[in-house]
Amino acid sequence: MLNELYVDDLINSTFDATEALQLSEEMIHILSEVGMNLRRWATNSTTLHKAWKRANIDCRKTSEESGVPKDYTGEDVTPKNFMAVLKGDEKTLAGVGIGKVRKSGPSDHVFVYFADHGAPGLIVFPEDELSAKDLNRTINYMYENNMYGKMVIYIEVCKSGSMFENILLNNINVYATTAPNSEESSYACYFDDKRGTYLGNSYSAHWMEDSDQDVLTTETLQKQYKIVKKEITESHAQEFGNMSIAQLHVSEEKAPRHLWRLRRIIEIHKGRDGKIRSATIETSTGIMKRHVQLLYNLEIVNNE
């Protein structure tokens, strides 16, 4: 369940409030068609936020400075807070960031992805470190308190295999993969000459690219792991935990991939009545024009 979608990057900022509202309504329908039941929308546009409120759309206004909503930033990104989020510990996070925690139960599938620096037996946060012992204690706590049905963990840091090797239990419904083994470094990729820095990490880039290219409703976690393991040559990816979970499909979404991977709406096309009839959209597989046949247009009524 995706709780909230921030739309300012999907909707062209030059659209007026009426067009923006119609486009956001279209996106709600498109994404709901593919099984992504969005609970709330977010924008930093005051005009669009007011239009949503008039249309009784559940939404949130962010600040101009914040841009995309961020739950925890800066000094709030600590091992203690990370573990509190996973354990649903609202008391520890009272007054920290927005205080959001996981509220999952025994029927939920939980995915945890972590990328940063690391060393044997630890992963690095901006100002602190999380030990393998404490991470696995947190995982065990979640299992003992029925906070997930199955959990999948992807970690990309140097020596990250040491976070699970001979530590992660294989009977607590957790499947984990790491970029290197317990002794190797993890490597960056896609060097940008203009910026003078790497734009990605090899392991992360490969599993994300595979997720864009493969049919995730038929691809298993095991298959994705093997593809990534083969494609990264600088280190040796590892897998740990309950191997039966690796036989599950990466996704359960039942939808055409070109809709599921909607990125942004480029242009809208109106009929003579002024209502949106189709839109040119960008997807993970390219740019296409989609007709708005079964979707409705919501007229804005100014009650102010």
UniProtKB/TrEMBL annotation:
<dbReference type="Pfam" id="PF01650">
    <property type="entry name" value="Peptidase_C13"/>
</dbReference>
<comment type="similarity">
    <text>Belongs to the peptidase C13 family.</text>
</comment>
<dbReference type="GO" id="GO:0051603">
    <property type="term" value="P:proteolysis involved in protein catabolic process"/>
</dbReference>
<protein>
    <submittedName>
        <fullName>Legumain</fullName>
    </submittedName>
</protein>
<dbReference type="GO" id="GO:0006624">
    <property type="term" value="P:vacuolar protein processing"/>
</dbReference>
<dbReference type="InterPro" id="IPR001096">
    <property type="entry name" value="Peptidase_C13"/>
</dbReference>
<dbReference type="GO" id="GO:0005773">
    <property type="term" value="C:vacuole"/>
</dbReference>
<dbReference type="GO" id="GO:0004197">
    <property type="term" value="F:cysteine-type endopeptidase activity"/>
</dbReference>
